[in-house]
């Protein structure tokens, strides 16, 4: 009676390696986003930025969406870019809510998602903004 | 089967006896839609509204049968506890919805409703306080029968002494 595992072959040799495949096992997903406010008005602070994200979720996905655990890890007021962290199961809700957000305090705005990854380290380099000299 | 639907059977429970006149299909449909919009947002509202109707309503017993798509019945069921009041003719009465049964066809919901009503009548009989009520309930229990046109068993209702 051999315990059936992922490698249920006839007779495994003396174990040299074991392969485990985990699909979408990361707990959180990270998004680097930039808010575009074409009119040169007052820039939102970090609290107002988070309020904007949560209100976008509330509009599209209701109270259930607004209760999604979203964190703003970094925020730069000058460039209006931020790194958001969300539970992996809520990535689709967050991304769709950011896409469909059109107004901030009655001013036209748009969210651009620059990078996304299940690993925070991957957001440190962006080959699109690489400058070759 | 290409188009699958789910039928959700619930009952409207309220302490206010005047709420019974508020129970109509438009009022209940609007209240449920409003609750879905609050809890699940624009996306949830649009998802559930595709094939959403109030299929059957009984104001005496407060039984409501809702229909929705199979893909979105979970959104509907999770939003039903958030219905707090019914509004009709500019009157609003507080109430809540109790989910009794979720079925795939109207027929299964009807079978369940018949059994449920039978049990409710027996419980009413047990909880009767005076002899007069007892005789009334017994008479109607013995007189109700299933005719060919599927008459609803147990339509007789107490006078709000629920």
TrEMBL record, chain A:
<dbReference type="GO" id="GO:0005730">
    <property type="term" value="C:nucleolus"/>
</dbReference>
<keyword id="KW-0819">tRNA processing</keyword>
<dbReference type="InterPro" id="IPR002759">
    <property type="entry name" value="Pop5/Rpp14/Rnp2-like"/>
</dbReference>
<dbReference type="GO" id="GO:0001682">
    <property type="term" value="P:tRNA 5'-leader removal"/>
</dbReference>
<protein>
    <submittedName>
        <fullName>RPP14 protein</fullName>
    </submittedName>
</protein>
<dbReference type="InterPro" id="IPR038085">
    <property type="entry name" value="Rnp2-like_sf"/>
</dbReference>
<dbReference type="GO" id="GO:0033204">
    <property type="term" value="F:ribonuclease P RNA binding"/>
</dbReference>
<dbReference type="GO" id="GO:0030681">
    <property type="term" value="C:multimeric ribonuclease P complex"/>
</dbReference>
<comment type="similarity">
    <text>Belongs to the eukaryotic/archaeal RNase P protein component 2 family.</text>
</comment>
<dbReference type="Pfam" id="PF01900">
    <property type="entry name" value="RNase_P_Rpp14"/>
</dbReference>
Automatic annotation (TrEMBL), chain B:
<protein>
    <recommendedName>
        <fullName>Ribonuclease P/MRP protein subunit POP5</fullName>
    </recommendedName>
</protein>
<dbReference type="GO" id="GO:0001682">
    <property type="term" value="P:tRNA 5'-leader removal"/>
</dbReference>
<keyword id="KW-0819">tRNA processing</keyword>
<comment type="similarity">
    <text>Belongs to the eukaryotic/archaeal RNase P protein component 2 family.</text>
</comment>
<comment type="function">
    <text>Component of ribonuclease P, a protein complex that generates mature tRNA molecules by cleaving their 5'-ends. Also a component of the MRP ribonuclease complex, which cleaves pre-rRNA sequences.</text>
</comment>
<dbReference type="GO" id="GO:0033204">
    <property type="term" value="F:ribonuclease P RNA binding"/>
</dbReference>
<dbReference type="InterPro" id="IPR016819">
    <property type="entry name" value="RNase_P/MRP_POP5"/>
</dbReference>
<dbReference type="InterPro" id="IPR038085">
    <property type="entry name" value="Rnp2-like_sf"/>
</dbReference>
<comment type="subunit">
    <text>Component of nuclear RNase P and RNase MRP ribonucleoproteins. RNase P consists of a catalytic RNA moiety and 10 different protein chains; POP1, POP4, POP5, POP7, RPP14, RPP21, RPP25, RPP30, RPP38 and RPP40. Within the RNase P complex, POP1, POP7 and RPP25 form the 'finger' subcomplex, POP5, RPP14, RPP40 and homodimeric RPP30 form the 'palm' subcomplex, and RPP21, POP4 and RPP38 form the 'wrist' subcomplex. All subunits of the RNase P complex interact with the catalytic RNA. Several subunits of RNase P are also part of the RNase MRP complex.</text>
</comment>
<keyword id="KW-0539">Nucleus</keyword>
<dbReference type="GO" id="GO:0005730">
    <property type="term" value="C:nucleolus"/>
</dbReference>
<dbReference type="Pfam" id="PF01900">
    <property type="entry name" value="RNase_P_Rpp14"/>
</dbReference>
<dbReference type="InterPro" id="IPR002759">
    <property type="entry name" value="Pop5/Rpp14/Rnp2-like"/>
</dbReference>
<dbReference type="GO" id="GO:0006364">
    <property type="term" value="P:rRNA processing"/>
</dbReference>
<keyword id="KW-0698">rRNA processing</keyword>
<dbReference type="GO" id="GO:0030681">
    <property type="term" value="C:multimeric ribonuclease P complex"/>
</dbReference>
